[in-house]
Design a protein that fits this description.
mainly beta, Jelly Rolls
Length: 374
């Protein structure tokens, strides 16, 4: 009987389990003990006994890497956190998901932010990187892909080489692009650059404003220079106050004449000889036509080696006078016969020694009885 009773008790409480009273109330119900429940969750255990993955609101740092091509930058998408869930759609024009660029959107990235002075980034086909081929550093002396120039221009770069017909081209040292504001396109009907006129555009000039009494001023179509042949009375006066070499004048020799404001004879500007070396010349010519006998008058100044380096004045390849040394401005006047002529001012240097500014100047050229034909 005792064995049967024992077996009965074992069946009641289950085989292999031991029931122990909890006199000290050691078993804790997490729903009634918030302290122990907080401790339990802090260890990463869920109520079901599993381990939950942890999350953080702290942003991660984007890691930028450069491919074998030094001009392309890619970003590791695994190290970047985006405010958008999932991958972006490359090409939709929106910067989203794991994209670092899309079309012309680059977030905070730019050529300037990457250390260049200017330019445009180019997004690659996957929107995971961008190329810096369009970025450049202006002023480093190297002509980079997005630059036209970087410093002084070579002799092979002219207004003509860039599709214009005349003028002076330069390099814009802020953008490293060609500055063609001094270039002009003769025949487009717009007087610009060094052009005094173009077609019917006479830049608000007429015979009277040049110094004649009357007549009809026109424009030479092939050179975009003034045609004075229908102007009568009065005088042609050229004071170079336009700040550029007038189109009717032609330069030749080893260096062209310029219009210079560093040492003007009168007003703000004067014509000045080109920068030449020993045994070289710089010539300045004006083709004219005199309907009747008249005169040519001008002022001149020299700063040269005395008795060796000369300013010479020629009419039809016959020298009329010459001056050398360091001289104050002075006037000169010479008769001109009726008909076409070539007036020329030449600066010539001997084989050695420079003195003064090594330059000559001419200003206030006046024709009485004649007009330029150049």
């Amino acid at each position: 009987m005792r064995r049967i009773a024992l077996l009965g008790l074992m069946g009641l409480f289950g085989c292999g389990e031991k029931v122990v009273d909890d006199p000290f109330n050691l078993t804790t119900d997490p729903t009634t003990d918030p302290t122990n429940a907080e401790t339990s969750l802090s260890t990463g255990e869920s109520e079901s006994g599993g381990v939950e993955s942890s999350t953080t609101d702290e942003p991660t740092t984007t890691a930028m890497t450069t491919t074998a091509n030094p001009t392309e930058t890619t970003i590791d998408p695994d190290s970047s956190t985006s405010s958008d869930d999932g991958p972006g759609v490359c090409g939709d024009g929106m910067l989203s998901g794991d994209e670092v660029c899309d079309g012309d959107l680059f977030g905070d990235a730019s050529c300037v932010a990457l250390g260049f002075s200017s330019g445009e980034l180019v997004c690659n086909a996957t929107c995971q990187g961008y190329a810096t081929d369009g970025c450049f550093i202006c002023g480093n002396g190297a002509i980079e892909m997005a630059e036209d120039c970087d410093g002084p221009l070579g002799n092979n770069v002219t207004c003509e080489s860039e599709g214009f017909t005349q003028g002076t081209i330069a390099c814009d040292l802020d953008t490293c692009l060609f500055d063609t504001t001094g270039c002009s396109l003769c025949g487009d009907g717009i007087a610009q650059g060094d052009e005094p006129c173009d077609g019917d555009d006479l830049a608000n000039m007429d015979c009277a404003s040049i110094g004649f009494e009357m007549g009809a001023l026109s424009c030479n179509a092939d050179s975009c220079s003034f045609n004075f042949t229908d102007c009568t009375g009065g005088q042609y006066i050229q004071d170079f106050e336009g700040g550029a070499v007038p189109a009717e004048f032609a330069s030749s020799g080893n260096a062209n004449w310029i219009v210079d404001n560093g040492n003007p004879i009168a007003g703000t500007w004067s014509a000045a000889s080109g920068d030449i070396a020993n045994s070289q010349t710089s010539n300045f010519a004006l083709a004219v036509n005199f309907a009747i006998p008249g005169t040519v008058d001008f002022t001149h100044e020299e700063s040269t080696e005395g008795s060796f380096d000369y300013l010479e004045f020629w009419i039809d390849n016959v020298m009329q006078a010459e001056w050398s040394g360091i001289n104050a401005a002075a006037g000169a006047s010479y008769p001109v016969a009726a008909g076409p002529h070539t007036l020329e001012w030449r600066y010539t240097k001997d084989g050695s020694v420079d003195s003064g500014s090594d330059r000559v100047w001419v200003d206030d050229i006046m024709l009485t009885g004649g007009v330029p034909t150049g």
